[in-house]
Write a structure and sequence with these properties.
The structure holds two protein chains of two kinds. By secondary structure, chain A is of the alpha/beta class. In chain A, helix 7 crosses helix 8, helix 15 packs across helix 16 and helix 25 packs antiparallel against helix 26. Chain A is globular, with a radius of gyration of 29 Å. The two termini of chain A are about 40 Å apart. By secondary structure, chain B is an alpha/beta fold. Chain B contains ten helices and 19 strands. In chain B, strand 18 and strand 19 form a beta hairpin. In chain B, helix 8 packs across helix 9. Classes of the chains: A alpha/beta, B alpha/beta. Chains A and B meet through strand 11, helix 9 and helix 16 of A and helix 3 and strand 15 of B.
Chain lengths: ~1100, ~375
């Protein structure tokens, strides 16, 4: 059946900002979908609020709306564009929920928009737990038995029906309080009573526990002719009980017989047919009882998902692309297989390697979080590794995480386990944490058996035995003693089991370089195999490779000029999709300029690891060893290390310097090395906040004494303000230094040393922070990309701060000074490519805070705001093009800055971590960003707030509680709220201050700690009586109502601002929003 | 356990290093035709599939043996393959049904194996150079190469005597009476046939008269190993059955022999189809089924003497997958609707046989408890 000709335009909804549980996998799938639909000749209308995505590049759709993903806004887009169809299955849960809401409101019917890919009934059946359960039971598929109970009697009755063991989960509780597993009446009664008490609404979910069962996922694709195929089966190494997004998973399924697997396959098809997903991809999750093979279905997602992105990368089968084609009417047997070219999409990929996905968490950035994994996803990113065997694959996976691990232990970090007694070690493996498998490895090393461990943690014995193989090999290698002692066969065996050179260096106490040299001398080099969807049955055309240690290497190196681009690895807070965007743009630009582009990366969520983004894709860890293997094989002419964030930059110094494109590693270092940087600023006559460096506490105290408190302390060579703190006195400084030297992951990442000193700078109170992105070329020609004025004051990490293009409060004089300084710094550093400079402006004085001669997080935002593709221009400049040439070529255009204001806002993960105080500070904690764009700052800011789920209220009540320093400035804000018709409530101090100045306060709320009758802010928040909270904290030592109130905002989903600067912006947003008719406009229109 | 170093040598001299697993063959040499199979699961079913008689099976999946072996997943009374080539044999297996790990299973059943092979290199080589004889074991390279060159492979070799049952036996309790020729029949096929028929399984050598004397409602022609061109006796028997206008369903070798009896010639595919992921289109309905496949030879339907309709084609290479004879109650498929291992969606072909028998016979001959002679 050919494609549909009765529809001409299709609205695609993206997934919005990167949040935990919904990351750049939807940029990957959405980009594929937009591209396919455009190629098929449809008019593509895209809605997505996330400027850092590839899909929102104006080239990928005919009309790109960077607007809030809100039903009213989407309705405006529909009213304006009148699309024939809506494709909701490629933008994650966000797009699905929006589509359902639009359907429910009758918007789709009103404008005659057909939902394609999945219909409302199918989505409802899959998403609604009760209906799903009913539907599955109707076709004979078991579901975990569960029911809600509100009284102990109800609970007992439910338990009697379900059977043991039973897990009790109280509703609406934080941090797992009141959860427990019972296998008899007495225990159950006690747990249920406690659970009912713990739940604020006295509700518990009573569920048959399947903890310890094995967990599987199948990725199904169906076409409209009802042909179904399984693209990939995924097995979770972690048994049931851990969210699949937080589980270590492998493909293919490794521990099921064909009889069991085919049963899951049949059930998956039955499920997708019953749910009624017409076309496209779905994800079905099962649990299998290892004792007897019993199967229950856990859930199904009627859309592409994180797992389908993983499945696509794991097999080479582009699920989202196929899903988009199926949605417009093709059948599977009409769509060619991109990789083989000779076969069709109607087949099931088979693989002859093992793929491992390992999540990456950010608990170190969220003090107060438990670090325990459970049914709520907490990871912020993931790495994928490919090896011929499981052992090779998982060890590559561990080193792909970039958390200082070289593999499964056999590295310095393992010494952290030395003090744990063996019995405790074994017991700890029962609890899923980011450390669990390392603890398993350590226990095996100490001689604990597979069976003992399995009894405690239920990890399948086959996996445990694989870990044991790694441990046994380590003992054997240890006995060999040195790199010179190994035969070729022994080298090969060690490498086939996934040992990195770094692990071997640690084991033999020799430098990694010595291991590498000895290994290469022995003739053991990495061989590259191909991901081809068919286990070599057919000749593959798509060059998608991974390294292993085998007989045969399949890579045929071309003689074209080549550029290798080092990606940014797994997403983490501070380094995410923005850098992937830059790498992808470099690949596109350099491909267009005639280079063969080679991408090296290990993040399965991204566009960069789509096999057709670059000429060649190497799915490899970003370590010295793995990157050098590719370099030696491909012999590229240039290496791009400055677009992928800190990951490739850290490697730059070790890689062949003559290959590094653009700004030299020495210049990069000059900007990072405090002494050289200070000298440079001094010689250029640019003011800096006074400061110095220190490698120990005494040094830090001395610097602070000299410059005066408050000071900002931070380690060098980190991104995202990792461990950055503002401290007000010596004791706080001592504590901060202690944290950095020993504690937490930073210690594991390398700790402090003369090479990695701590920077101590005077902190500038109440300064305006400004970011400047610019490009300088080899001739010294220079262009400003964008000047961003931050909304929040200096001291809030730039990544967590809102900012605007063009600047809203800076004078022309200041702006020209910023430009001049940026240029002189770029000249002094001999920058060839991008540079980002951060300034603080106070009382008309411009201070430079830092400069980074590399791509910054703001590059995609600037590109969307101005229409100038900065990363493309920069990548060309890095390999020798001049700005003048690129102007002639048309790649470098004049920025479009007149007529609109663009506001970037950060999106924070606090709703996932209700136990954490959601206050902004110098350590970055946002996971993603949104953009609001409109004619005025106020409306653009209001759009950015709506897009980041902080809708500014147009009516209702504002709660104000500010610290003494902010009281004076609060007056104007409060008046503005009052003028906009909002009611004001405040704590006594703030209320008195405002009332005295003639601002009416409706209610003075009681402090939580004060005795008395009146309501506290918490009471009002719980009752939904407050629509906006302005709460500025008193400093890090503050332990008062503030933290409770802020946490309550997170839990009750009330919009909150913790800085007065943001409150000012909110006030202007509310005022302008009320006075401006709402309108939407595509990026193409803004930038025309 | 110490490692026994071993080599695999193909007839063209290509050599691989590995280590011996399973049964240790006499003089350290095992020979056969080297083929590959791409299934992700189902190694026990594959190893015990009699169609692999004379062949050495390369598994492209890296990890083999993870879930052990169990008594119910065997496809025949013993393995008939000549050997197994894997990248990684599990040393510990894990499954609630497992009774024996794969290494022990191979040893107790006399199947030699070799592990540690770069199976992807081997597969790519077989894909490009074609399936070919090979030898593996702990013997020296020259010995292995000589053995590989001396090995006849499967072209022109008759394996039916080896794999077929010596005596008739009956299984199943369905409503029809069906005689199944055992050319190397898989147990899963018998389980499916048994749903619709009471099945008497007979030796490959049984004459058509003897089969007809059993009074069957229909005859089933099984899968089996080797080259259809050497099965002239069977082709003769089938020709006699066709003359008697017998209702016939054939699978795999069964399709090839039925078509040969109908006058067609067969040819050898470059490297055969061995896997569980081949798309086959039912050209009558447009539906695509993912199928289990295991064959090296293919029917050239343009050479048929009898009128027949192509019902199924392979979407990967366009080769013939199914035939329905226009004027006779006979149909056949090249793939394995019984799965074992593999996907289940073409199981409905057994229902098609049921429907065919219903069309031909007004009413079933009724269930029989014993051989219905």
């Amino acid at each position: 059946m050919p494609k549909r000709t009765d529809i001409h335009s299709i609205l695609v909804i993206g997934s919005g900002p990167i949040v935990i549980g919904q990351a750049c996998e939807f940029d990957y799938s959405g980009t594929q979908a937009c591209r396919v639909l455009k190629e098929e000749g449809y008019r593509v209308i895209l809605a997505n609020s996330n400027p850092a995505t590839i899909m929102t590049d104006p080239d990928f759709a005919h009309a790109t709306y960077i607007e809030p993903l809100d039903p009213d806004v989407i309705e405006s887009i529909i009213a304006k564009e009148r699309p024939d169809a809506l494709l909701p299955t490629l933008g994650g849960q966000t797009a699905l929920n929006l589509a359902m809401e639009l359907d429910k409101r009758g918007v789709l019917a009103k404008y005659g928009v057909e939902m394609i890919g999945a219909n409302a009934l199918a989505i409802e059946t899959a998403e609604n737990r009760e209906r799903f359960k009913e539907a599955m039971q109707g076709i004979g598929i078991a579901v975990p038995q569960s029911s809600f109970a509100h009284t102990i009697e109800q609970a007992m009755a439910v338990a009697a029906e379900i059977g043991w063991p039973i897990i009790v989960r109280p509703s609406y509780i934080l941090g797992g309080a009141g959860t427990g597993i019972a296998d008899n009446d007495d225990d159950f009664r006690a747990i249920a009573i406690a659970g009912l008490a713990a739940s604020p609404i006295s509700e518990i979910l009573v569920e048959r526990s399947i903890a310890g069962w094995k967990e599987y996922e199948l990725e199904v694709v169906r076409d409209k002719a009802d042909n179904c195929v399984i693209i990939c089966g995924i097995e979770n190494v972690d048994p049931m009980g851990v969210h699949t997004g937080d589980s270590i998973t492998v493909a293919p399924i490794l521990t099921l017989t064909d009889v069991e697997y085919q049963n899951l396959r049949d059930l998956s098809f039955a499920c997708i047919r019953r749910i009624g997903v017409d076309t496209g991809g779905s994800n079905v999750q099962f649990a299998v009882n290892p004792e007897n093979g019993d199967v229950v279905i856990i859930e199904m997602n009627p859309r592409v998902s994180r797992s389908s992105a993983l499945a696509s990368k794991a097999t080479g089968y582009p699920i989202a692309k196929i899903a988009a084609k199926l949605a417009v009417g093709y059948t599977l047997d009409e769509i060619p297989n991109d990789i083989t070219k000779t076969t069709y999409a109607s087949f099931e990929p088979v693989i002859d390697y093992v793929v491992t996905k390992i999540p990456r968490w950010a608990f170190e950035k969220l003090p107060g979080s438990s670090g325990e994994l459970g049914t709520r996803m907490q990871s912020v990113g993931e790495a994928m590794a490919i090896g011929r065997t499981f052992t090779e694959s998982i060890q590559k996976g561990f080193r792909s995480l970039e958390q200082g691990r070289y593999g499964l232990n056999c590295d310095p970090a393992e010494e952290n386990y030395a003090h744990i007694p063996t019995a405790e070690l074994v017991a700890k493996t029962a609890v899923a944490t980011p450390e669990r498998l390392f603890l398993v490895g350590e226990a095996l090393r100490r001689g604990v058996t597979v069976d003992e461990l399995h009894a405690v943690n239920k990890i399948d014995p086959w996996f445990l035995d694989q870990f044991l193989m790694i441990v046994e090999e380590r003992h054997a290698l240890d006995a060999l003693g040195s790199p010179g002692a190994l035969s070729k066969r022994q080298w090969k065996r060690a490498k086939q089991l996934g040992f990195s050179d770094a692990q071997l260096g640690y084991l033999w106490k020799v430098p990694e370089s010595q291991v590498r040299t000895a290994r290469l001398t022995a003739g053991v080099v990495a061989t590259f195999k191909t991901v081809d969807t068919c286990a070599a049955e057919f000749d593959a055309k798509t060059p998608y490779h991974y390294s292993t240690y085998e007989d045969d290497d399949e890579v045929r190196v071309s003689d074209r000029p080549k550029v290798a681009i080092l990606g940014s690895g797994p997403n983490r807070i501070g380094q995410g999709i923005e850098f992937d965007y830059c790498c992808v743009h470099a690949s596109y630009a350099l491909r267009n300029a005639g280079f063969e582009t080679i991408m090296i990366n290990c993040n399965p969520e991204t566009v960069s690891t789509d096999y057709d983004t670059s000429d060649r894709l190497y799915f490899e860890p970003l370590t010295y060893e793995d990157v050098m293997n590719v370099i030696e094989r491909e012999q590229p002419d240039h290496l791009i290390v400055s677009l992928g964030g800190q990951t490739p930059l850290k490697l730059a110094g070790m890689l062949p310097a003559h290959l590094v494109a653009g700004t030299s590693p020495a210049s990069i270092d000059a900007a990072e090395d405090r002494e050289r940087w200070n000298k440079l600023c001094h010689s250029l006559g640019i003011e800096q906040p006074p400061g110095g460096t220190a490698v120990d506490v005494e040094g830090a105290l001395a610097v602070a004494e000299r410059v005066g408190y408050p000071v900002l302390v931070r380690p060098s060579y980190v991104l995202g303000g990792r461990a950055m703190q503002i401290v007000n006195d010596a004791s706080a400084l001592r504590k901060a230094m202690a944290d950095m030297a020993t504690d937490g992951s930073l210690g594991k990442e390398g700790g402090l040393s003369a090479e990695r000193p701590v920077l101590v700078d005077r902190f500038l109170d109440d300064a305006v922070e400004v970011d400047v992105d610019a490009i300088r070329d080899v001739t010294g020609d220079f262009v400003i990309g964008g000047i961003m004025e931050h909304v929040e004051q200096a001291g809030v990490h730039s990544g967590d701060s809102a900012c605007a293009i063009p600047p809203q409060s800076l004078s022309p004089l200041t702006i020209s000074e910023l430009e001049r300084h940026t240029r002189s710094i770029a000249d002094a550093l001999d920058v060839r490519g991008l540079i980002n400079v951060q300034f603080a402006v106070r009382d008309g004085v411009v201070y430079v805070l830092e400069a980074n001669p590399r791509a910054s997080r703001t590059v995609p935002f600037v590109a969307k705001a101005t229409g100038v593709p900065l990363a493309m221009v920069a990548s060309r400049v890095m390999v020798g093009a001049t700005l003048a040439e690129l102007r002639v070529e048309g790649l470098l255009r004049e920025p479009k800055t007149g007529g609109h204001v663009s506001v970037k806002e950060a999106v924070l993960p606090f709703s996932r971590f209700p136990e954490v105080d959601p206050v902004l500070g110098p350590e970055m904690r946002s996971t993603g960003e949104v953009m609001g764009i409109d004619r005025t700052f106020g409306v653009a800011y209001a759009k950015s707030q709506l897009a980041s789920s902080n809708r500014l209220p147009s009516e209702g009540t504002v709660y104000l509680s500010v610290n003494d320093r902010d009281k004076a400035a609060t007056v104007g804000v409060a008046r503005s709220f009052a003028n906009a018709g909002l009611r004001l409530v405040a704590t006594s101090g703030t209320a008195v201050h405002l009332s005295e100045r003639g601002i009416p306060i409706d209610l003075v709320v009681r402090k939580i700690s004060d005795p008395g009758d009146g309501p506290t802010a918490l009471d009002l928040l719980r009752n939904g009586d407050i629509n906006l909270v302005i709460n500025t904290p008193r400093g890090t030592s503050d332990y008062s109502d503030g933290a409770d109130i802020r946490r309550a905002c997170t839990v009750n989903k009330v919009t909150m601002h913790t800085t007065l600067a943001a409150a000012v912006a909110a006030a202007s947003g509310i005022a302008e929003w009320k006075n401006t008719p709402f309108s939407v406009r595509s990026l193409q229109e803004w930038l025309a | 356990m110490s490692i026994i170093e071993a080599h695999l040598v193909l007839a063209d001299g290509t050599t691989f290093e590995g280590e011996a697993i399973g049964h240790l063959p006499d003089a350290g040499v095992a020979t056969g035709e080297v083929v590959f199979n791409t299934v992700l699961s189902g190694y026990q079913e594959v190893i015990t599939d009699p169609s692999y008689a004379g062949q050495i099976i390369t598994f492209t999946s890296t990890h083999i043996g993870n879930y052990g072996t169990n008594p119910t997943d065997d496809e025949s009374r013993r393995p008939f393959c000549r050997g197994v080539i894997v990248r990684e044999l599990a040393r510990r297996s894990s499954n609630h049904r497992s009774t024996e790990d794969l290494g022990a299973f191979l040893r107790t059943r006399g199947v030699a194996g070799i592990a540690g092979i770069d199976t992807r290199r081997l597969t790519r080589h077989l894909r490009d150079a074609g399936a070919q004889p090979g030898a593996f074991g702990s013997a020296d390279h020259d010995t292995l190469l000589r053995a590989a060159k001396a090995e006849p492979g499967t072209d022109g070799v008759d394996f039916l005597g080896e794999v077929s049952t010596a005596e008739p036996y009956t299984v199943g309790n369905g409503r029809w009476r069906v005689v199944a020729y055992d050319f190397g029949i898989k147990r899963t096929i018998l389980r499916h046939l048994g749903r619709i028929a009471t099945v008497t399984v007979v030796p490959a050598s049984m004459s058509a008269d003897d089969v007809l004397a059993l009074g069957p409602d229909g005859v089933f022609l099984s899968n089996g190993p080797g080259d259809p061109a050497v099965c002239s006796a069977q082709v003769g028997q089938i020709r006699a059955l066709i003359k008697a206008e017998t209702s016939i369903f054939g699978i795999c070798l069964g399709q090839q022999l039925l078509a040969s009896a109908a006058g067609a010639s067969t040819f050898k595919l470059p490297f055969g189809h061995h896997g569980g992921n081949h798309p086959v289109k039912d050209v009558r309905t447009g539906r695509v089924m993912i199928t289990s496949q295991n064959h090296n030879f293919c029917v050239d339907h343009t050479t048929l003497d009898l009128a027949a309709e192509v019902t199924h084609v392979n979407l990967n290479d366009g080769t013939l997958e199914g035939l329905a004879y226009t004027d006779l109650p006979m149909f056949s498929v090249q793939h394995h609707p019984e799965a074992g291992p593999g996907p289940h969606e073409s199981e409905t072909l057994f229902d098609d046989f049921d429907a065919l028998l219903t069309r031909v016979h007004a009413k079933p001959s009724g269930p029989a408890t014993k051989a219905f002679a």
